[in-house]
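Ticket #219: bound-state structure for guanosine-5'-triphosphate.
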Amino acid sequence: MFRVDVVLPCLNEAAALPQVLASLPPGYRAIVVDNGSTDGSAHIADAAGARVVRETRRGYGAAVHAGLTAAEAPIVAFADADASFDLSELPAIVDPVASGEVDMMLGFRVAQTRGAWPWHARLANRYLARRISAAARVPLRDLGPMRAARREPLLDLGIRDRRSGYPLETVLRAAAAGWRIAEAPVRYRPRVGVSKVTGTVRGTAIAIADMSRVLREVS
Ligand SMILES: Nc1nc2c(ncn2[C@@H]2O[C@H](COP(=O)(O)OP(=O)(O)OP(=O)(O)O)[C@@H](O)[C@H]2O)c(=O)[nH]1
Ligand SMILES: [Mg+2]
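RESOLUTION: The complex was predicted; output attached.
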């Protein structure tokens, strides 16, 4: 039995997956949630020994939630499948949850190169982190996609967003439920493959719209 399931939402990440899956620490199992990839991502994930789950409904949140529902380990961690994170750093996010020191651990991103994180995304994130800190009364530096918590309480949060508002809704609901939430630094590198969200105007606009709605509805 695996101690930690790692949910990796995946939309056309064939070029990144081998490197991502090779960096998993022992005792951690990858659940690659294939969100309708057309580049053979599912096959590559399967060949690398990951568990593959399919989610036909598009959206980051739809993929992540399908992974959480399929998970079986007591602790579930989340990361991106585009090689922007080094999964060998996951224990720094998971261990404080496993020891019971916190209920949810978030990775705050430390850019490794200038290209890893465009200025508009950085600015938007800092603004968002401030608003969340005020709304949820948790001091946050970032709202990144790397995080970990216990599986059952996470499911009980009843997160509804299925697009880009998912991480924000997770943090707001957890804070409202009185969870102890903390952050640890994680390295953030340029993704492998073509940018879909942060590097595109459309992706950024959708992300802002989704997060604004979640802030209105949940906080
Ligand atoms: N954008 C997007 N990503 C998805 C979807 N389903 C799964 N994903 C995965 O979710 C993770 C995060 O998406 P990214 O495209 O890396 O988003 P980002 O990091 O904000 O922006 P870029 O890396 O610049 O594209 C990646 O592993 C994607 O493959 C979806 O419907 N839309
Ligand atoms: Mg990315």
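RESOLUTION NOTES: The longest strand covers residues 104-111.
TICKET STATUS: resolved
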